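Researcher: We plan to redesign the surface later, but first we want a full-length starting point. C-alpha cells attached.
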C-alpha cells in the first residue's frame, strides 16, 4: 500500500471570539476557506508503529505529529491497531502560521486511510474523529468554504470567496496559538467583525464588500509582533490588494487581489523581504 493525499491549508476570512466557555475553550466565529497551498502526504504500510518523516527537521515524527495521531486513531477506530505505517510529509504550508498545517496533515491522513481501507468509516464517523484530534481538523477534512463555530468543529457551508487571488505572506517569526489566546483574555475585545455582512457579501459575489469586512480580533491584542503584521498588511494594500488580514493566530497574513499580475508582482517583492510568500487560489469541498 502506498497512498498519496494533498493536505490543503486554510485561511480565516475573518475571525471573531464571542466568549469563553466554562470548559476553558473560546467560542469562535470563523468563516473559513480552503486554499491551494498544500503539503503532500505519502502513506505506506511498513514496519511496526506509526511514524512520520518530513522535509522540515523541526516537525516531530512521533505522536506529537497530528498526522501520526490521526492515523493511530483511525486504525483504532477500524480495529486494525496492529498495522505499521510510515507517513512521509512534504511540507509546503509554513509552520506556526495560522494556516492549520498540522490540522491539514491530520485531515489528509484520515481521508487517505479511509480510502485505502475501503471507506470503513462513514463521513459522520470520520468528522467526529477529526474533531477529537483538533479544533481545525474537522474543517480541514471537509474543506471548501464554511462558517466554523464553537471550538471550530461546528461547520455550516457558506458561499465561496468571490473569484480572487490570495497572496499569503509569512514573516520569519511564528506565533504560538495558546500564547495569543492568553493575551486575548487579558483585555475586553473592542471591535468585532461583521460576520453576517461578510457572508452576505460572499453570497452576492461582492469582493469589495468582502474586503471591507476582513477582520481578525487577534490583531488588536497587546503584542509587539502585531506591528509587523500591520506593516505587511500595508504592503499588501500598497501592492494592489483590495483587503488584507492576519489568518488564525498568525503570523501569516493574506491579501485578496482581483488582478493576478498584481498579486504575483506583490508576492515576488514580499517574498524577498519576508522569506515566504505564495499566491494561492480558493479550493472547493474535499470530502
Ligand atoms: P493552527 O492554525 O491550527 O493554530 P498553525 O498553522 O499555527 O496551526 P501548525 O503549522 O499546525 O501551526 O504547527 C503548530 C505546531 O504543531 C508546530 O510547532 C509543530 O511542532 C506541531 N505539529 C504537529 N504536527 C504537525 C504537522 N504535521 N506539521 C506541522 N507541525 C506539526
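Model: Full-length starting sequence:
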Amino acid at each position: 500500500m502506498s497512498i498519496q493525499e494533498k493536505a490543503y491549508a486554510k485561511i480565516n476570512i475573518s475571525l471573531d471570539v464571542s466568549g469563553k466557555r466554562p470548559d476553558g475553550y473560546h467560542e469562535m466565529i470563523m468563516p473559513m476557506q480552503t486554499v491551494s497551498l498544500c503539503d503532500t502526504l505519502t502513506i505506506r504500510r511498513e514496519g511496526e508503529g506509526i511514524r512520520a518523516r518530513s522535509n522540515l527537521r523541526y516537525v516531530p515524527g512521533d505522536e506529537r505529529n497530528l498526522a501520526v495521531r490521526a492515523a493511530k486513531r483511525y486504525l483504532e477506530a477500524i480495529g486494525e491497531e496492529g498495522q505499521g505505517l510510515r507517513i512521509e510529509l512534504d511540507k509546503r504550508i509554513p509552520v506556526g502560521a495560522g494556516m492549520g498545517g498540522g490540522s491539514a496533515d491530520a485531515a489528509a491522513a484520515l481521508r487517505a486511510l479511509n480510502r485505502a481501507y475501503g471507506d470503513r468509516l462513514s463521513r459522520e464517523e470520520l468528522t467526529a474523529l477529526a474533531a477529537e484530534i483538533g479544533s481545525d481538523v474537522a474543517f480541514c477534512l471537509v474543506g471548501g468554504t464554511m462558517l466554523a463555530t464553537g471550538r471550530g468543529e461546528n461547520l455550516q457551508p457558506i458561499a465561496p470567496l468571490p473569484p480572487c487571488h490570495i497572496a499569503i505572506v509569512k514573516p520569519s517569526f511564528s506565533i504560538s496559538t495558546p500564547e495569543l489566546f492568553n493575551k486575548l483574555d487579558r483585555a475586553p475585545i473592542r471591535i468585532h467583525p461583521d460576520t453576517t455582512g461578510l457572508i452576505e457579501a460572499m453570497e452576492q459575489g461582492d469582493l469589495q464588500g468582502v474586503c471591507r469586512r476582513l477582520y481578525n480580533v487577534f490583531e488588536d491584542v497587546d503584542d509587539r509582533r502585531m506591528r509587523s503584521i500591520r506593516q505587511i498588511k500595508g504592503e499588501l494594500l500598497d501592492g494592489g490588494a483590495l483587503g488584507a488580514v492576519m489568518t488564525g493566530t498568525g503570523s501569516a497574513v493574506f491579501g485578496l487581489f482581483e488582478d493576478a499580475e498584481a498579486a504575483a508582482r506583490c508576492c515576488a517583492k514580499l517574498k524577498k523581504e519576508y522569506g515566504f510568500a505564495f499566491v494561492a487560489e480558493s479550493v472547493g469541498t474535499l470530502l
